[in-house]
Amino acid sequence: MNISGLKNFFKKLSFFKNYSAFLVPVIIFVVGVLVFIPTRLMSGKLRERIVTESVSKGRQVESLSKSTVARNQWQIEQEYQKAYEADANQTALLAKQSTQRELLSYKVFPEPKDTSTLIFQEFGKSYRGAVEELITLMNARDCPSESELQRNLQSSPAFSLRGGRGLAGRLSEVDTAITDVICREKAESASVYATPRDLPGYEFWEEYQYIGRATAIDDCWYWQLAYWIVEDVVYTIRDLNSGSNSVFTSPVKRLLGVSFVGGIAGSTTVKTSASTGGRPEYVLVLGQGLAEPCTGRFTDDDIDIVHFNVAVVISAKAILPFMQQLCSAKEHKFRGFLGDEQERIFKRNQITVLESDVIAINRESPNHLLYRYGEDAVVELELVCEYIFNKNGYDEIKPESIKKATKPAAE
Length: 411
Description:
The chain has a domain at about 115-140 and about 190-405. It is built from 11 helices and 8 strands.
């Protein structure tokens, strides 16, 4: 650098020297501008991030803190879950116990050890004896028979039958009065009209003929089911008529019958079903039973389903109570399927009404002529019902032939 260049350089330095008082503020201003712009940009993003993340999470934490569970909440929840589990186990146990019932014979199921055919005849005698006990339990009687009435009427000089046969003919006024007295005495001596022959299986076992071991075992099994169902019907009538010793004061006036194949002798309506000799049959598919089930239930891996029909003459005021009582819980004793265990009391509730039919009756018709129902308005009530058996309750005694014949189609 020459002398002239140095002079110019020092002149410039003297310029800065002259304005040195402004130099520092200018530098600070420039640096401030350079720092302020990115800072503003960064602070805006930071504020946005704080709002979207920190503040939002803070509010969420605050909200959660208000609903924070107690330290021992897991213990409380554990107790709830145990209670739910206990309820489920109890329900399963009750369902199982409902199908653990006393047997008419402890020698037949699942396979008789005795090779004698007498065990099947003994089963039939037990069945008939148990049905007769059910009739006694209801305090049931029949109306007077025609032969009984004739014997009483023949002692009357005014007795005359003209036109027709038997008591269906025309009676004199005196004979009519005598007949009415006899019929009323019968009604006053019983709580309900019923005979053993109104119940299924009674005549079957009366006329029983052994035709083979396999068939005999099947017959015993299905009629055991029938007896359990009939027992529930009888208990319903007994309980509803409790306190009444006369048909006149009983809500249920007459048991027309119980059927597993449809038609009930003496009832007005008749339903049809494939005949199996009158014994029950399992409903294996929808449409097989006596009615289309509103429950949608049929025999599957867990339950067996049987349909049955019951018909009664009943006070019009007792229609709903009868159905409620029929579907209510009932108690039974159980001493094991060998009959050698300590007696326990179980409960059952296995009936659902699928269809009901109420029919007016004509008291002067042959079907009701010798019956006296009292002053109540009475009707015929016919029900189609579903009966549930829980397989885990009785599969241990179910014959193998029954298991194979009723195996669900899905399997």
